[in-house]
């Protein structure tokens, strides 16, 4: 891979040799630098690990190293990139060298040649901060990646590097949310017929889509892959893969615009002979289900199986959720059973979609059974699922079960479960409808202790409770209290 990338990289400088120094002074100074570089490399290669750093400090603690010397030492150690990186960090941490952009660039190149991606990206971040800190202004911060790119370009052939160094610069910009600079750098590199790896292109598409929307992500895709011009692409460019198209589909789906991009993206997949995977189908099916087109989603599910792509839990959950949303609980349960028969373990999402569907359908018994099964399987439901089930139980007059469910969740996972206002409201309404106003008042006190203020809905629940049991006196007092707080039907308390 590295060989292929290196061959595709055109000359950037006119004719420097791999052994040429990045910079040089007079003849005497050059000879002195050569001696320092040779001595340091010899010590680092030949002495024991624990003694060599102390020995170097005893030799050069007073004079330190220039950035030019550090660069040559780094290049002299490139056959042992981890040792070169240790020297770079040690000289920096020991204040023996004030590294500049050229020494940073040389170190990045050495790490890139060795495929030490994480270390190289970390160093690029440091280089960007170095440049940004020189002027301290916003302009300097925006220009920093450009300066790092220029330094990498200048030292590329001297360091006998690989285009991966530039790829990692783009990734570093994306990690730092410097989206504009990442796009700009990719454009500059493409003019030199240097292309990011497809994984970096995909990350760029995902980041741009998240920051600027699906349409912007699609525009970057077209720019990177020449996908909007009838297929004409610059020589040496790369082709998108299934993750590329999944990133685009997901971006449109998150905006509720699956129809806008779905067909176009599927056509491009065929054009690039890129076979969809299970996640591709899951995204497409999710868009169809959210648009109420459950039958079309089921057709895609069958197509996936016909294509020999085995559905995973995400694919099953997508269709199960669509069926639940359409009120087809029988078919949802059938698909859930088929999922388990295929040897695919249900996930927490599988249960939560079914519980929500049963609650909506009024089958609180089925929802409660699934909740118990979910707990037996070791899953913890989301708070929204717990709230939905409590509300459904209260609507069916099973308030005591709802209260037990709340207590159970509050006692689980170290008491970290935080009940919502809606959970308290459903239970208080249910208790008051059953005439258990005193129990409702205890629950309301607990609710207040958790920071939830009594609003008009809470007051109306207690008013109804007192009136149901014929206690007009307490109902009147509560109404006066409500009015004194500025509460009336349809109004919330002042906060």
TrEMBL record:
Region annotation Disordered: where it falls in the sequence: 1-31
GO molecular function, one term: mRNA binding
Single GO BP term: mitochondrion organization
Biased composition, class Low complexity, residue ranges: 10-24
PROSITE patterns, A to Z: PPR
Protein's UniProt keywords contain Repeat: yes
Keywords noted in UniProt: Repeat
PPR repeat start and end residues: 162-196, 241-276, 277-311, 312-346, 347-381, 420-454, 455-489
Coiled-coil ranges per UniProt: none
Pfam families to which the protein is assigned, alphabetical: PPR (PF01535), PPR_1 (PF12854), PPR_2 (PF13041), PPR_3 (PF13812)
GO cellular component: mitochondrion
UniProt entry tagged with the keyword DNA-binding: no
Entry protein name: Uncharacterized protein
Source organism (scientific name): Spirodela intermedia
């Amino acid at each position: 891979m590295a060989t292929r990338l290196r061959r595709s990289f055109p000359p950037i400088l006119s004719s420097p040799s791999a052994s040429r120094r990045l910079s040089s002074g007079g003849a005497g100074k050059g000879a002195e630098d050569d001696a320092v570089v040779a001595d340091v490399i010899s010590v680092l290669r030949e002495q024991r690990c624990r003694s060599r750093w102390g020995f170097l400090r005893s030799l050069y603690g007073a004079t330190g190293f220039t950035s030019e010397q550090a660069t040559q030492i780094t290049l002299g150690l490139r056959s042992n990139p981890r040792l070169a990186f240790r020297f770079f960090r040690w000289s920096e941490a020991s204040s023996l060298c004030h590294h500049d952009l050229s020494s940073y660039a040389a170190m990045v190149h050495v790490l890139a040649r060795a495929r030490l991606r994480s270390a190289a990206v970390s160093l690029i971040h440091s280089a960007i901060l170095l440049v940004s800190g020189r002027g301290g202004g916003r302009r300097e911060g925006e220009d920093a990646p450009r300066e790092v790119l220029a330094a990498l370009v200048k030292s590329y052939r001297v360091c006998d590097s690989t285009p991966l160094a530039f790829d990692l610069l783009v990734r570093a910009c994306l990690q730092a949310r410097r989206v504009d600079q990442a796009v700009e750098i990719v454009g500059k590199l493409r003019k030199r017929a240097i292309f990011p790896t497809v994984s970096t292109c995909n990350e760029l598409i995902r980041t741009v889509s998240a920051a600027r929307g699906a349409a912007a992500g699609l525009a970057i895709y077209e720019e990177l892959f020449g996908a909007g011009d009838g297929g004409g692409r610059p020589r040496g460019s790369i082709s998108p893969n299934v993750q590329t198209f999944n990133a685009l589909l997901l971006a449109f789906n998150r905006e509720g615009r699956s129809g806008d991009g779905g067909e176009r993206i599927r056509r491009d997949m065929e054009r690039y002979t890129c076979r969809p995977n299970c996640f591709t189908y899951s995204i497409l099916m999710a868009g169809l289900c959210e648009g109420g087109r459950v039958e079309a989603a089921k057709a895609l599910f069958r197509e996936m199986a016909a294509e020999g792509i085995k559905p995973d839990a995400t694919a099953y959950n997508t269709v199960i959720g669509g069926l639940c949303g359409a009120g087809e609980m029988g078919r949802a349960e059938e698909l859930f059973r088929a999922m388990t028969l295929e040897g695919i373990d249900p996930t927490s999402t599988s249960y939560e979609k079914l519980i929500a569907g049963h609650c909506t359908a009024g089958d609180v018994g089925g929802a409660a059974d699934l909740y118990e099964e979910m707990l037996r399987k070791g899953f913890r439901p989301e708070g929204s699922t717990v709230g939905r089930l409590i509300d459904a139980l209260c609507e069916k007059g099973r308030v005591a079960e709802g209260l037990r469910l709340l207590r159970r969740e509050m006692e689980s996972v170290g008491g970290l479960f935080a009940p919502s206002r809606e959970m308290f409201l459903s239970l208080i309404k249910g208790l008051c409808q059953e005439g258990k106003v005193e129990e409702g008042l205890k629950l309301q006190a607990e609710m207040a202790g958790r920071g939830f203020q009594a609003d008009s809905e809470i007051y109306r629940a207690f008013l109804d409770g007192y009136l149901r049991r014929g206690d007009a006196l307490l109902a009147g007092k509560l109404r006066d209290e409500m009015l004194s707080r500025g509460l009336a039907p349809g109004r919330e308390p002042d906060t």
